[in-house]
Design goal:
Its EC number is 2.2.1.2. The chain is of the alpha/beta class and 360 residues long. The chain has one domain: Aldolase class I (TIM Barrel, Alpha-Beta Barrel). The protein is built from 16 helices and eight strands. It has an eight-stranded parallel beta barrel, surrounded by nine helices. β3, α7 and β4 form a beta-alpha-beta unit. The radius of gyration is 20 Å and the shape is globular.
Length: 360
């Protein structure tokens, strides 16, 4: 049994980042799904840029030019990404159906410059959702104070969301509140809510790089401790384990079949040679592990004997004892700003690459 089936045995799904057209033309995506049991993919700006710099999209650019559809780099990007998402969503439709909508998602970040205002973020989300036209599309929205109302609005309009940059339990609870508000709005309108989903993504490597150097006398990473705490919150709120909270009471009042606010451990920015200890310690039922292809290929044939996140019940004490002189909120704000800037830069580089292709 290799890595992905091994993780699935413990109730965890694996999604891969870096999807681009070559995965389909070379048969890789089909192999990942059929042989490994891959449960989802994400398109990212960097991988798409590399593929465009190569030859994967030359035919698309030729078609755009011949049919007079190429107006500018942004319009070409929209054409390419919609086509990619439609093709990938088609491959995952059976997984999506077999798992009753718990898996089989294809996800994409909104253009970062659309995230500067809630109105532009909503417009961009609605445009790509309608253009792709598949129910197993998942739109990534940063869980910032500015964009939490966007998450609520999209859920209330039956658009699936992956709330990213969730670094702490307090942010998770804020996303949960936005998710609940969107679901409650749908229920008030007499609409079904069982086919609407929201995930939350925790950037594991980035959290460690920001916090670990500031912690002394700890034998584990801060991100793993934080993941344990977040998973406890997930169980308290969604699985009704432990005492009741106001959010949990609202959750109980929803109709049956509603999807819980699942956690995604984003390990894509961890070097493959360092990733194994994270993979071993971040296993938990009903969560998702997001990996890049290099990490998967490195450990693909290895069967897993994990240390489950649920094994340690004293996690909150561990987390707080290591942060007595650290303001996590300040660090989180800094991390969010850095990630937003990094995404904006990556998207601009992608547009520059597309513009160069257009001129050839």
């Amino acid at each position: 049994m290799n890595l992905l089936p091994s993780l699935r045995r413990y109730g965890q799904s694996v999604w891969l980042t870096g999807f681009e057209r070559g995965w389909i033309s070379r048969g890789e995506l089909q192999q990942y799904i059929e042989s490994d049991g891959l449960r989802g993919v994400r398109s990212n700006f960097q991988s798409l840029q590399v593929a465009i710099e190569g030859h994967e999209y030359n035919r698309d650019f030729t078609i755009l030019a011949q049919q007079g559809m190429s107006r500018n780099a942004r319009s070409d990007y929209n054409y390419l990404i919609v086509r990619d998402l439609q093709l990938a969503a088609d491959f995952f439709k059976q997984v999506h159906s077999q798992t009753q909508g718990c898996n089989g998602y294809v996800q994409i970040d909104l253009p970062p410059d659309a995230l500067l205002q809630p109105e532009t973020a909503i417009a961009a989300a609605q445009d790509i959702w309608q253009s792709v036209g598949w129910s197993n599309l998942l739109l990534r929205i940063p869980a910032t104070q500015l964009l939490l109302p966007v998450i609520e609005h999209l859920i209330g309009n039956r658009i699936n969301v992956n709330a990213t940059l969730v670094f702490s339990p307090s942010i998770y609870e804020q996303v949960f509140d936005s998710y609940l508000r969107g679901l409650e709005s749908l229920i008030q309108q007499g609409k079904l809510v069982s086919d609407v989903v929201c995930f939350t993504t925790v950037p594991i490597g980035r959290l460690d790089r920001a916090i670990n150097p500031l912690i002394t006398d700890t034998e584990t990473s801060f991100s793993v401790m934080q993941a344990k705490l977040l998973y406890q919150h997930y169980r308290n709120l969604c699985q009704r384990v432990g005492e009741a909270f106001p959010l949990e009471i609202r959750w109980q009042s929803l109709s049956e079949g509603v999807k819980p606010l699942r956690l995604v451990w984003d390990c894509t920015d961890i070097p493959p040679e360092s990733a194994w200890r994270y993979i071993q310690t971040l296993v938990a039922p009903e969560t998702v592990m997001m990996l890049d292809t290099l990490t998967l290929l490195r450990y693909r044939e290895i069967s897993l004997l994990p240390a489950l996140l649920t094994d340690d019940e004293q996690v909150e004490q561990l987390v707080t004892s290591g942060l007595s002189e650290i303001s996590l909120d300040e660090r989180v704000d800094q991390l969010v700003n850095e990630e937003m800037a990094r995404s904006l830069n990556a998207f601009q580089q992608l547009l520059d690459t597309i513009e160069q292709k257009r001129r050839r």
